[in-house]
């Protein structure tokens, strides 16, 4: 059933990782746009819930490594978000990142193609450009993945792209660093962590000199971009890679920190120029996206996002609980589940009943 005259709405979409930070914003937004959404997630972060879900999406509780052809039944499109989603987790046990982010992700795409699924949107990352101080990176820039996580995204992209044919249209969306409010909150992405530190301790702590560049993008804009990709004419997106964001959304970390201190009066800027701090930097250009999606609007600015998150974090009892920030930091939360024996050394739930 097409909504609002949009012939591409009403697709039956499998969203993997729909219980994560981006997924718990994206899946409901697809439902609102008239798509029928089925989610698949193992629920690592179900207990990391900051605000309630607006729309409950039918859910298959399943490890990505166990997906089978049956999960593809009746599916028109796959949006693939499920992954171990940052560098620190990649370093925790590289084997897990390889298994989930590469092997299981490529297998998912193979199963989708074999089942006749037409569209496959892969959540990739600008992180794979690595250190690029001198240049602005576009989709043609040679990749320089420097971490297990970045390598996993680069390898998965390459393998999934090779599956493209006239019936199977994979699209790679290389997100910038995502910020903003989500039911399954993360405070370990750059801008979110600056805001959280301002709320919790009245200081915006910048590690390093603050000069590195980061393209940032609000989680709701990311959701809109994925939806636009799903609904675009196939010839616009089939086999294509897009940096997802806008040129005006490249900021130096110090600029992001100043946005937070401006939004939150009385907070202090604390630049700790320690040696050996992560100084990864990349500035991306988003001209390809702008050309393919000329009517697309990036609705959020970091200033709006800072106000949104500040208001929510101040109102929520999270302020006190921020001390217990393992809930909002993906690596620390997984470490806790491992330490409690709830996840085994394959990063699988030890007690299926204990899994959410
Ligand atoms: N958040 C960002 O800034 C950002 C930037 C660029 C790319 N991405 C990518 O976007 C995607 C979503 O990111 P996010 O921030 O929502 O991450 P997240 O960690 O909040 O969510 C990932 C979800 O995937 C699920 N998952 C992980 N391994 C699984 C497995 N083996 N089986 C089933 N489910 C599994 C988790 O339970 C979780 O719900 C990821 O692929 C990430 O690499 C995120």
Helix fraction bin: 25-40%
Instruction: Please state the overall shape, judged from the principal axes of the Cα atoms.
Output: globular
What is the N-to-C order of secondary-structure elements (H for helix, E for strand)? EHEEEHHEEHEEHEEHHEEHEEHHHH
Largest sheet: 7 strands, parallel
Ligand set: nicotinamide-adenine-dinucleotide
Mean pLDDT, to the nearest integer, reads 91
Strand content: 15-25%
Low-confidence stretches: none
Global structural class: alpha/beta
Q: How are the strands of the biggest sheet laid out side by side?
A: 3-2-1-4-5-7-11
Number of helices: 12
Question: How many E strands?
Answer: 14
Radius of gyration, rounded?
Answer: 19 Å
- Gap between N and C termini: 32 Å
What would your notes on this structure say?
This protein has helices spanning 23-32, 87-92, 94-114, 148-161, 190-201, 219-231, 234-237, 253-263, 287-292, 302-315, 318-321, 330-339, and strands spanning 12-16, 36-41, 59-61, 77-80, 119-125, 136-137, 169-175, 177-179, 203-207, 213-218, 241-244, 250-252, 268-272, 283-284. The chain has 356 residues and is α/β, with parallel strands linked by helices. The strands form four sheets. It has a seven-stranded parallel beta sheet with strand order 3-2-1-4-5-7-11, sandwiched between helices. Helix 1 (23-32) packs across helix 6 (219-231), helix 5 packs parallel to helix 8 and helix 8 crosses helix 10 (302-315). The radius of gyration is 19 Å and the shape is globular. The structure holds nicotinamide-adenine-dinucleotide.
């Amino acid at each position: 059933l097409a909504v609002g005259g949009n012939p591409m709405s009403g697709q039956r979409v499998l969203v993997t990782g729909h219980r994560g930070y981006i997924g718990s914003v994206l899946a409901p937004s697809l439902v609102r746009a008239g798509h029928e959404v089925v989610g698949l997630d193992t629920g690592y972060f179900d207990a990391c819930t900051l605000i309630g879900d607006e729309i409950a999406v039918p859910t298959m509780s399943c490890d990505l490594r166990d997906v089978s052809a049956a999960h593809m039944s009746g599916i028109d499109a796959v949006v693939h978000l499920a992954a171990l989603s940052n560098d620190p987790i990649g370093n925790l046990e590289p084997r897990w990142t390889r298994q989930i982010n590469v092997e299981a992700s490529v297998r998912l795409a193979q199963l989708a193609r074999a089942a006749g699924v037409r569209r496959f949107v892969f959540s990739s990352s600008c992180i794979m450009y690595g250190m690029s101080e001198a240049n602005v990176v576009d989709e043609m820039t040679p990749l320089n993945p420097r971490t297990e996580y970045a390598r996993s995204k680069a390898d998965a992209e390459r393998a999934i792209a090779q599956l493209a044919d006239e019936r199977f249209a994979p699209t790679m969306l290389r997100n910038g660093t995502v910020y903003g409010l989500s039911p399954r909150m993360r405070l370990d992405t750059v801008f979110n962590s600056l805001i959280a530190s301002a709320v919790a301790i009245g200081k915006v702590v910048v590690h390093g000199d603050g000069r590195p560049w980061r393209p940032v993008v609000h989680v709701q804009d990311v959701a809109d971009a994925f939806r636009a990709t799903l609904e675009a004419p196939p010839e616009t997106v089939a086999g294509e890679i897009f940096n997802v964001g806008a040129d005006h959304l490249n900021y130096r970390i110090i600029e992001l920190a100043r946005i937070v201190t401006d939004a939150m009066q009385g907070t202090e800027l604390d630049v700790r120029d320690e040696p050996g701090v992560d100084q990864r930097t990349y500035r991306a250009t988003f001209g390809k996206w702008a050309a393919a999606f000329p009517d697309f609007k990036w609705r959020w600015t970091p200033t709006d996002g800072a106000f949104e998150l500040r208001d929510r974090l101040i109102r929520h009892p999270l302020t006190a609980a921020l001390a217990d920030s393992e809930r909002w930091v993906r690596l620390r939360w997984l470490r806790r589940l491992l330490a409690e024996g709830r996840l085994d050394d394959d990063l699988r739930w030890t007690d299926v009943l204990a899994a959410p």
